[in-house]
Amino acid sequence: MFPEELGAKIKEYDITSPDTKNPLSEPYPFNLMFHTSIGPSGVSPGYMRPETAQGIFVNFKDLYYYNGNKLPFAAAQIGQAFRNEISLRQGLLRVREFTLAEIEHFVDPEDKSHPKFPDVANLEFLMFPREDQVAGKSARRIPLGDTIAREKSGVPLGAHEKFPEPKEVEKLIIAPVKKELGLAFKGNQKMVVEALEAMGEKQAMEMKSTLESKGEAQFHVCTLDKVVTINKNMVSISKEKRKEHQRGFTPSVIEPSFGIGRIIYCLYEHSFYTRPSRDGNEQLNVFRFPHLVAPIKCTVFPLVQNQQYEEVVKQIARSLAASEISYKIDITVTISIHTTLITLLKSVRMSLATICCKAKHHLFGIGKKYTRTDELGVRFAITVDSTSSVTVRERDSKQQIPVNVDEVASVIKEVTDGQSTWADVLWRYPTHSS
């Protein structure tokens, strides 16, 4: 509807604000894209992009070529997008500038086979088909296989498949006679021609039969929103057999599109919590990131500053890197307790109580490292406390187990890859007391 028509309907059905029951203002056009000025003189209008996928479609021909003129292939793009959001609320869920990621999977519409599809064809997802929306029904669970059988496109994009041998095919030929159509429909000739050329095979063959028997046929032109009369001298409809060496087809497109900011926001929302410190005087921040998405899988640090321990840290770091496990080395506040006590005892003016207090500060520095690890959302902390074994601490349970140096990378790998659970690891290794 045009704004005036919509405004008339609002008044006709007495539609008011659902909360206050106040009358609604007159509808008016609202541009969802940001308007700006571009060019050296600043007089040319421009609009900030509302999505990032346009570049993929513009470059389809090149992407198709780079893939050896074969389907399927996919292209991904990430960048800044802008929407003229009417109401800025709810944190990162409603913003005007956001990071958007989009993937376009181009596939052959007549050959969507995939060796792994039978494994997921019976999975059910909550769907809301068009016919259910029109009928006022609720969303329902539909098997993925049924949904795929119904995802199709009809717009040619220029992809083709060469046949090993020429094939004889029957083609529908619709040839509008533009001269006759121009005389009959004048300025509307183009819309009538386009509607005739867009007919499906069944509709075209029905029109052909009607024209041959009656000499004319009634034809609805949707762009004109009216029925027109087509005479048999206005269009030629036939089927021809021909040999083809290739076929052109429309690649169907599967487009996962998602805002990066919203995903991160939801991840923070579901992963963050606080828990009391050891002495109960403060609340400590923890991110309970699932290990599959955690940016850092584990931290490594020596219990105290020691040349041998530092060599073990480097050895473990090399093993983790070889296993493609992201890690962080924490070497802050790693002064040897032995060195600390000697330094403190050299100060004759320091009381025994002060010495004990400072020694305790360094002794429990490991707890602060665990706190930093938890706040980063890292699930595993590896503490090097000997040259042959280490202590592995799990973030959520705070349980600790001793693991040999040469085994620790494989233990972390099997849990982060989902091959084993932490419970499986606990079954194999005895736990330390916290």
TrEMBL record:
Record-level GO BP terms: mitochondrial glycyl-tRNA aminoacylation
Main location: cytoplasm
Sorted UniProt keywords: Aminoacyl-tRNA synthetase, ATP-binding, Cytoplasm, Ligase, Nucleotide-binding, Protein biosynthesis
Keyword Repeat: no
Ranges of residues in domain Aminoacyl-transfer RNA synthetases class-II family profile: 1-276
GO MF annotation: an example: ATP binding
Ribosomal protein in keyword set: no
Compartment(s) of residence: Cytoplasm
A Gene Ontology term for the protein's cellular component: mitochondrion
PANTHER family: GLYCINE--TRNA LIGASE, GLYCYL-TRNA SYNTHETASE/DNA POLYMERASE SUBUNIT GAMMA-2
Identification of the protein by name: Aminoacyl-transfer RNA synthetases class-II family profile domain-containing protein
Organism in which the protein naturally occurs: Anisodus acutangulus
